[in-house]
Design brief:
Length: 114
């Protein structure tokens, strides 16, 4: 069942257009001193809890695969979300986790082991 979860996430990414609205190095309008460590965006044509597209972090691994997911709790927005980690190296995953665990948000990182 666990493997099937990752396969479904992979299918969702493979069948979607990725839109990067926050390229690596850019900043969020509320957090100007905290640049995005990798490209961040969403899967066009999908829906998440915030009524936007499913969020995705994309790194430079070069394998075009889902390597993990973040489960987030945001006390400012008062929501929780699942964010896909795609094509990221271990160093990029670490940088993403550090980035997300900032201010009023916390995240649990679930890595894919296959």
């Amino acid at each position: 069942m666990t493997q099937e979860f990752w396969e479904y996430l992979q299918h969702l990414v493979d069948s979607s257009q990725i839109v990067f609205d926050h390229p690596k190095g850019s900043t969020h309008k509320r957090f100007l001193s905290n640049p995005y460590p990798v490209n961040y965006g969403y899967l066009n044509g999908t829906t998440s809890v915030d009524s936007g597209g499913v969020d995705i972090w994309m790194g430079t691994l070069g394998e075009k695969k889902v390597v993990g997911a973040l489960c987030t709790v945001d006390l400012l927005k008062r929501d929780t979300e699942l964010k896909i980690i795609y094509d990221c190296t271990e160093e990029e995953i670490h940088a993403i986790v550090e980035y997300v665990n900032f201010d009023k948000m916390r995240a649990l990182c679930i890595k894919r082991f296959a």
